[in-house]
From TrEMBL:
Listed EC numbers: 7.6.2.11
One GO molecular-function entry: ATP binding
Pfam families: ABC_tran, TOBE_2
Gene: potA
Reactions listed under catalytic activity: ATP + H2O + polyamine-[polyamine-binding protein]Side 1 = ADP + phosphate + polyamineSide 2 + [polyamine-binding protein]Side 1
CDD domains, alphabetized: ABC_PotA_N (cd03300)
Family membership noted in the UniProt record: Belongs to the ABC transporter superfamily. Spermidine/putrescine importer (TC 3.A.1.11.1) family.
Coiled coil feature spans: none
Protein name: Spermidine/putrescine import ATP-binding protein PotA
Length: 369
């Protein structure tokens, strides 16, 4: 499933140069974005970046100040929320407290005037979908947080919208339940064949669930890509920093050849990388590399193209992995992580030990400063 790589794939949701202003303040700035049918799409960004505003415009709660939003080729301008094939599930999933689970789910269907027997069928189907058949007669306060969340979900898909919008859907759940629910949401999306657009500020959540992620900052999209691309090939410092941990080596491009780029750091240390991006010799750049791409060893690694010496600043054992901070001799702090595949590391390094960090030329990306 990768319609974004297919030049013939039909766009499903299109934000076309959309701007949203609140008075003088620009919440969404001339933003264009395409989402495909059946995609699980995440809008990821810090508080205030405009992601909820984008979702609310798609739902019809706000109208763009400029630009268009299309759904399946149809311009949505002027179409009220209830007439859009879109439903929204909110963070504070306000269930009706005095209604049973089944009545909560049936509410929207009744309002729509669906015949009673059809409602009963649909509600049963929805209860089965979210595995709450035996809770049909309970009220929300008699449910756990996760169960309530599933009722809210069942309610929001009961009308069979084509697109489900989720604004921080799992924000109220604790970490463990949130992770479980992420997988449930993915299964549900597959099963229903719907397009999901989720807003989150939690990068792990976006990475786990989404087919593609749009990373937003100040009302603009910084990058749209699959989780792997966003992590492995960020196109800006902002994205590299926003998703996961990263080391940044500042330097200048000293030499640019067909396949290799030589970078000189501020203190003269040299790094050789394979992907120089479109930087030219003399350019000020940063080399961004993820902690797990860096190897730490007590001896100078033989054959390593890039090896820098320093001292262990601290070591943190996290169970699944160990995280090292190495202070290089030029003063730069490097974070490196190693999975604890075997029980005991065969190269145990501890605080203040001399250490080498090494990495392959293709292990990171060169970005504009
Ligand atoms: P959060 O995760 O905190 O909800 P967000 O990225 O979803 O953040 P938005 O809710 O889209 O951010 O808001 C983007 C910006 O627009 C914020 O600075 C917010 O204060 C502003 N904003 C949103 N709605 C309005 C409004 N109705 N009137 C004025 N300003 C608004």
């Amino acid at each position: 499933f990768a319609p974004w790589n297919d030049p013939n794939a039909k766009p499903y949701i299109q934000f076309d140069n959309v701007t949203k202003k609140f008075g003088d303040f620009t919440a969404v700035n001339n933003l264009s974005l395409t989402i495909f049918e059946r995609e699980f799409f995440a809008l990821l960004g810090a508080s205030g970046c405009g992601k909820s505003t984008l979702l609310r415009m798609l739902a019809g709660f706000e109208e763009p100040t400029a630009g268009r939003i299309l759904l399946d080729g149809q311009d949505l301008r002027g179409i009220p929320p209830y007439r859009r094939p879109v439903n929204m599930m909110f963070q504070s999933y306000a269930l009706f407290p005095h209604m049973t689970v089944e009545n909560n789910i049936a509410f929207g269907l009744k309002q729509e005037g669906m015949p009673k027997s059809d409602i009963e069928k649909r509600v049963a189907e929805m209860l089965k979908l979210v595995k709450l058949e035996q809770f049909a007669k309970r009220k929300p306060h008699q449910l756990s947080g996760g169960q309530r969340q599933r009722v809210a979900l069942a309610r929001s898909v009961a009308k069979r919208p084509k697109v489900l919008l989720l604004d921080e859907p799992l924000g109220a759940l604790d970490k463990k339940l949130r992770e479980e629910t992420q997988f449930e949401l993915m299964d549900l999306q597959q099963e229903l064949g719907l397009t999901f657009v989720v807003v989150t500020h939690d990068q792990e959540e976006a990475m786990t669930m989404a087919d593609r992620i749009a990373i937003m900052d100040k009302g603009e999209v910084m990058q749209v890509a699959t989780p792997a691309e966003v992590y492995e090939a960020p196109t800006s410092r902002f994205v590299a920093h926003f998703v996961g941990n990263v080391n940044m080596f500042e330097g200048k491009v000293a030499e640019r050849a067909a396949n290799t780029t030589r970078i000189t750091g501020a203190t003269g240390a040299q790094i050789v990388v394979e992907n120089g991006g479109n930087t030219a010799a003399g350019a000020d750049i940063v080399f961004a590399i993820r902690p797990e791409k860096i190897k730490v060893s007590s001896k100078k690694p033989v054959d390593a193209v890039n090896a820098l010496e320093g001292e262990v600043y601290d070591v943190a054992y996290l169970g699944d992995m160990t995280v090292y901070h190495i202070r290089l001799d030029d003063g730069q702090m490097v974070r490196a992580s190693a999975m604890n595949a075997s029980r005991v590391s065969d190269d145990p390094l501890t605080w203040n030990d001399r250490a080498w960090v090494s990495f392959r030329p293709d292990a990171g990306v060169v970005l504009a400063r």
